[in-house]
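Support reply, case 0932

Customer input (verbatim):
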Amino acid sequence: QVQLVESRGGSVQSGGSLRLSCAASGYTASSYCMAWFRQAPGKEREGVAVIGSDGSGRYADSVEGRFTISRDNAKNTLYLQMNSLKPEDTAMYYCAAAQRCTLRSSGGLYRRSLQSADFPFWGQGTQVTVSS
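Our regenerated output:
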């Protein structure tokens, strides 16, 4: 049974940094596609970053250059390093996994999907709050 457990989030001031982690169990995480999503109150869940088994990542435009997704296959752990945080980054953050990354057309190119429907396995979520 696939299980994903996020680390505790936290509260930081604008411009600060946080690192989230997600411990995976029940499967060989190294072969899976893994991602981070977030959902702010009253808003839809949005994809933040996705990483394939090859270690390459794709980011939402809103976090490009500020967030870094990475994985430690030996520890079956996914990370999200968040720098230069903004109040609009405040949300519940979720770790998600799929057996393989789904490729979807975006701007004429096929890229790894950041759509929640393409990820069947989810963690319970962790709150990140950024104050101005």
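We compared this against your earlier run and they match. Two observations from our side: The first strand starts at residue 3 and ends at 6. The mean pLDDT is 94. Please reopen the case if you see a mismatch on your end.
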